[in-house]
Amino acid sequence: MTPSGGAVPVVARSDSTGCFVPTEASELPGGERIVLRAVAQFAAAGLVALVVVAVVTQFASRRIGERSAIDDARAVTLLRAQAIAPYVTQSVLDGDGAAGRRLDAAVKRRVLDRSLIRVKIWRRDGTILYSDESRLVGRRFPLESEELDTLRSGRRAVAGVSDLSEPENRFERPDTRLLEVYAPLRSAGGTKLLFEAYFRYSAVTAAGDRWWRNSAPWTIGALVLLQLVQIPLAYSLARRLQRRERDRARVLGQALDASTTERRRIAADLHDGVVQGLVGTAYTLGGLARRRDLDPDVAAHLSMSEHDVRDSVQALRSLLVEIYPPNLFEEGLAAALDDLVARLRTSGVDATLVIDGLDRPPSPTVSALIFRVAQETVRNITAHARATNARVSLVGSPSRLVLTIVDDGVGCDPPSMSNLPSDGHFGLRGVRDLVAEAGGSFSFASAPGAGTTVEVEVPRS
Question: Does this model's pTM top 0.85?
Answer without folding.
Answer: no
